[in-house]
Amino acid sequence: MNNSFTNNIVEILPRVEGFAYPNEATVHPLWSVLIVVYPYVTGLVAGAFIMASLVRVFNVRALEPVYRLSLLTSLAFLLCAPMPLLLHLGHPERCFEIMMTPHLSSPMAMFGFVYAWYLLAVLLLELWFDYRADFVEWSQSQTGLRGVIYRAFTLGVHDVSEPVLRLDARMGRIISIVGIPSAFLLHGYVGFIFGSIKANPWWGNVLMPIIFIFSAIVSGMALCVFVYMFLSWARRAPASIDCLDTMGKFLFFALVIDAAIESLDWIHRLYSADESIHILKSLAAGRLFYTLLVGQAFFGTLVPLLLLGAVQLFRTRITVSARHWIYFVGSVLILAGVLSMRWNVVIGGQLFSKSLRGFMDYKLEFAGHEGWLLSVALLGLPFVILGVFIKLFLPATRSHSNEPATPIRPATGASAV
Amino acid sequence: MKKPLGRRSLLRTLSGALAGALTLSVSRKAKAALQKILVASHTPKGYDPTKHKWLMAIDVGRCIGCGLCVEACKTENAVPIGPSYFRTWIERYIITRPEAGSGEMRGETIVDSPNGGMQGFPAGLVPKEQILKSFYVPKLCNLCEHSPCAQVCPVGATFDTPDGAVLVDPKYCIGCGFCIQACPYGCRFMNPLTKTAEKCSLCYHRITRGLKPACVEVCPTEARVFGDLKNPVPNDPIHRFIEKNKAAQSLKPHLGTAPRVLYAELDKEVR
User: CA-CA distance, B186 to A19, in Å (whole number)?
Assistant: First the structure.
C-alpha cells in the first residue's frame, strides 16, 4: 500500500497499518497473553499424562522412574489451567453459568465438563489407586501434619491385602486407558475452539485440533524430561540414562509427527492459496517473524529435531554426559518453541484484520491484568504446586532404588525419583 | 454369550424408544414456549416476535458518508465514545485508476473509516483524477441466518430472536469474547464499562414499539432501508428495495453464515 495513504490512516487509528474494522482496533487483542498461557498449560497436562500412560498402558518399563512424576506434573498444571481463563473473563463471577446452563453448540461450553472429567475421573482417581498402598503405609509411619494428610488421602480404606492391591493395579490401568482419549479430548477441544472459528483464516482449520494434540504431547513430554532432570540435579541423584534415552526417543517421534502436521498445514495453505494467503504470508514474515520462523520453526522444532535425531542415529558414539545435555537443551528448546507456537496461534490470529486489509499492533505490558508479569506468575505457579507434591508424594529416600516392579502391581512404577 | 432378543425385551426396547420420542417432542415444545416467553418478556405488551421478520437493507449508491447514522446509534444505544466501539459504522472505499500500461483493470483499493465515519471523511486522501470509483459502505450486524456468534456463546447469552434480530443479554454474558472472535464482520465489541459483548440490536427497543432503528430514522438519503418481511404495507420500502434490487448481495457469503442484510450495488472489493 502506498505510504502516504497508510500514514493518513495511521494518524487516525494509531495502532493499525492498512485498514481494520473499527471494532478490531482495540488497545489489546481481545484474547491476550493470558489466553496464550491457557492452551500451553492444558497442553502440558495432556502431554505429561501421555508420558505416564506409556508406562501404564504400553508397559514401557524404562520410563517407570518418571511415572509418578509425570502424573503429579500433570495434576499440578491441571489445577492451574482454569486460572488464566477465569482471570480473563469480563465477568468471572458468572463463570459457573458455563456448567449450570451450558449452550451445547459452543465448544467452550464443554470446558467445565471436560475439565471436571479429566480432573476427577481420570487424574485424581488414577493417582489415588496408584498411591493407595503408599498412603496406608505412610499414614502409619508418619506423624504430625503429614500423617494427617496421608490419613485423609487414604479416604478410610486401609485394606492392603493382595487381591485389593491387584484391583488397584487393574483400576489404574483401566483409568489410564480411558485417560488417553480423555487427554486427547482435553487438548483437542482447546484446538477446536480455535479451529472452529471460520471467521479467522489463521484459526479456522480442520488440522488445528490435531496440531494442538501433538504439540501438547511434545511439550508435555519435554516438560517431563525437564522436571526429571531438574529434580535429579536438585537431589544430587543421577538421572537414569535408560529412562532419559527412552523419553528422548518418544519425544523425537512425537516431534517428527508434530513437525510433519504443522508443515502440512503450511504447505496446504500455500498451495491452495485462498484469499487470505497474502495477509497470512505477510503476517508470518513480518509481525510473527521472530516467534514463528525463528522461535517456533527454527529453535523450537528444527534444532531439537536435529539434536534428538542425532542421538537416535549415533547413540553409541555420544557420551552419556553429552546425551544428558542434549536432552536438557532439547527439552528446554521444545518447551519454549511450543510456548511461542501458542503465542503465534492466539496473538497471531488477532494481529490482522478480518477484512484481510491490514494489521493491528500489540505492545505487551509489564504489570496489570493484561501484563506479562501475571502470565509468568501463572506459568510459575504449577511448578510451586509440583514442588509441594514432590515433597509430599515423592520421597527422596526411594530414589533410584531400581526395584523391579512387584508382581502385585505389575504395571505400576513403584520406584520413583 | 449374548442372549437372544426375546419378546419381552423387544417390547421393552420399543416402548423405551417410543417414550423417548414422545418426551423429545414434548421437551421441544416446552423449549419453544419458554423461548417465546423469554424473548417476549422485555418487549412491549402485545408484541409477538414470531409475527415479524425484520430486515435492513443498504443502498450503497445512496450513502454519502455523513456519519449521522453512526452518531445516532451511539446516542440512542449509549455506545461508549471511542474509536473502537461501534454498533454501526461507515467504510469509505477508494479504488484508484490503474497505472497506464500496467495491464490492470483497477488500481489499489484504499479503505478507511476514521472514528467509524462518525465525523464524516477527510477529503484529499487521493487526488481526484486518480480515483476510478469511490463509495461508502455502512456496516452493521448482518443478522445472519446461521449466526456464528450465537453458535459459539458458551452460556447462550447471545441468541437469535424469532423476528430476525441477534441479541445479547448483558446480565448473562460472561465476557469471554468468543462471539467477538467468531463474528466474521467485526460487528461486535467488548463494552469497556459493562465488560460484556455488545452489538447492533436493530434498536430492538424501538422496532418493537413500531419505530424505525435510530440509524434508519436519521439517514438523510434513505440509504438504509428497514422493514418487516412478514407484514407488507402498501409502498413498503423493504419490499420495494427487494423488488428493485434483485441482484442485491450479502457480505462474505462463502462463509455460510447466510447474512440477511442486503447490499445493493456492492463492489467486489467490499469484505
Answer: 12
Contact A31 B256 (CB under 8 A): no
Label residues B179-212 b or e (16+ Cβ within 10 Å = b).
Answer: bbbbbbbbbbbbbeebebbbbbbbbbebbbeeeb
Please list every residue in chain B whose beta carbon sits closer than 8 Å to the beta carbon of residue A12. 83, 112, 114-115
Say how many residues make up chain B. Answer: 271
| Domain assignment of residue B118, yes or no | no
The kind and range of the H/E element at B7 are helix B7-40
Q: Which of A12, A23, A196, A347 to mutate to test the interface with B (most CBs of B within 10 A)?
A: A23
Does B201 contact A at CB distance below 8 Å?
no
pLDDT at A58: 93
A301's grid cell: 522444532
Q: Which of A8, A21, A203 sits opposite B125 (nearest CB)?
A: A8
pLDDT for A366 equals 87
The CA distance from A194 to the nearest CA of chain B, in Å, is 9
| pLDDT for res B42 | 63
Nearest-angstrom CA–CA distance, B69 and B23: 48
**Are residues A105 and B152, on separate chains, in Cβ contact within 8 Å?**
yes
Domain that holds residue B80: 35-88+139-271
Q: Which of B198, B169, B228 is nearest to B47 (CA)?
A: B228
Contact A103 B108 (CB under 8 A): no
Virtual torsion, Cα A243, A214, A39, A308, nearest 10 deg: 40
The residues, any chain, with a CB within 8 Å of residue A349's CB and separated by 6 or more, are A194, A200, A202, A203
Q: How far is CA A409 from CA A48, A400, A406, in A?
A: 22, 18, 6
CB pairs under 8 A between A and B: 147
pLDDT tens-digit readout, B145-201 = 999 999 999 999 999 999 999 999 999 999 999 999 999 999 999 999 999 999 999
- pTM of the predicted model over 0.80: yes
Contact check, Cβ <8 Å, A91/B196: yes
Q: Which residue of B has its CA nearest to A353?
A: B186
Residues in B closer than 8 angstroms to A108, CB to CB, are 152, 154, 176, 178
Question: Is B123 within the bounds of a domain?
Answer: no
Cell output for A338: 511450543
B186 touches chain A (CB under 8 A): yes
Which residues from chain A sit within 8 angstroms of residue B187, using beta carbons? 21, 23
Nearest Cα of chain A lies from the Cα of B5 at a distance, in angstroms, of 30
B214-233 residue pLDDT tens: 999 999 999 999 999 998 88
CATH code for the domain of B40: 3.30.70.20
- Return the pLDDT at B13: 80
Positions of chain A with pLDDT under 50: 1-13, 398-417
Q: How many CB atoms lie within 10 A of CB A391?
A: 11
B216 occurs within a structural domain: yes
- SS3 of residue A221 by DSSP: helix
**B190 inside 8 A of chain A by CB:** yes
What is residue A349's three-state secondary structure? helix
Burial of A17 (0-12, 13-18, 19+ CB in 10 A): buried
CA B199 to the chain's CA centroid: 9
Give me the number of domains chain B comprises: 1
Q: Are A348 and A359 in contact (CB under 8 A)?
A: no
Average model confidence (pLDDT) across chain B: 91
Question: From the CA of B246, how many Å to the nearest CA of chain A?
Answer: 26
CB A17 within 8 A of CB A161: no
